[in-house]
């Protein structure tokens, strides 16, 4: 069983998820936007929050991954403004993923993501979704995966 964790992380919570899944024999691919995100937190909240709110698909660096070689793919995203992050929206639109067995790990300050769960349930019926509350501050949340 070849397993892949493909994820985005801006402030390190996703890295903890990646470390945990690496221990479980997942290959790890980090999604990197082509353009840098704002460095200051207020600008990031404004720009990132806005873009996530409109389900923006941000241009990303080449992934160099052959999705067809994986039996299971887990996608990781922070929650921004209730939504999935723009670099992961780009991944979600990739036709190669349509036929794959997908699941999702979302990480959020409040540990809840109802809007995104609703969206993912609609777009990827049957996919398992786990939401973690800020694993950097709450490492015990990693036990959910
Ligand atoms: C632009 C922005 C918007 C955010 N919006 C939300 C939100 O709507 N709900 C929430 O619970 N957390 C929100 N957060 C917090 C992040 O989801 C949380 O810190 C997450 O763990 C970050 O993951 P990372 O460290 O891998 O980037 C937001 C953070 C940023 C930067």
Outline the structure in words:
The protein has four helices and six strands, in the order βαβαββαβαβ. Strands 1, 2, 3, 4, 5 and 6 form a six-stranded mixed beta sheet that branches. The chain is globular and about 40 Å long. The mean pLDDT is about 95. Strand 3 and strand 4 (about 85) form a beta hairpin. By secondary structure, the chain is of the alpha/beta class. About 30% of the residues lie in helices and about 25% in strands. It has helices at about 15-25, 40-55, 85-90, 115-125, and strands at about 5, 25-30, 70-80, 85, 100-110, 130-135. The protein has one domain (about 5-145): Flavodoxin domain (Rossmann fold). The structure holds flavin mononucleotide.
Ordered list of secondary-structure elements with their pairings:
Blueprint: E1 3-7, H1 13-23, E2 27-30, H2 41-53, E3 72-80, E4 83-84, H3 86-92, E5 102-108, H4 114-123, E6 128-133
Parallel strand pairs: 1-2, 1-3, 3-5, 5-6
Antiparallel strand pairs: 3-4
This protein binds flavin mononucleotide.
Would you summarize the structure shown here?
The protein has 145 residues and is of the alpha/beta class. It has helices at 13-23, 41-53, 86-92, 114-123, and strands at residues 3-7, 27-30, 72-80, 83-84, 102-108, 128-133. The longest helix is centred in the first third of the chain and has 13 residues, at 41-53.
């Amino acid at each position: 069983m070849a397993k892949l964790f493909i994820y985005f992380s801006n402030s390190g919570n996703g890295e903890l998820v990646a470390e945990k899944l690496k221990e479980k024999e997942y290959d790890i691919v980090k999604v990197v936007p082509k353009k840098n995100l704002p460095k200051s937190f207020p600008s990031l909240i404004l720009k990132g929050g806005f873009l996530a709110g409109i389900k923006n698909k941000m241009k990303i660096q080449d992934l160099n991954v052959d999705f067809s070689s994986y039996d299971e793919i887990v996608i990781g995203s922070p929650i921004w403004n209730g939504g999935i992050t723009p670099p992961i929206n780009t991944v979600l639109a990739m036709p190669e993923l349509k036929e794959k067995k997908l699941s999702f790990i979302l990480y959020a300050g409040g540990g809840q993501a109802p809007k995104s769960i609703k969206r993912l349930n609609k777009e990827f019926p049957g996919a398992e979704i786990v939401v973690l509350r800020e694993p950097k501050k709450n490492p015990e949340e990693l036990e959910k995966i």
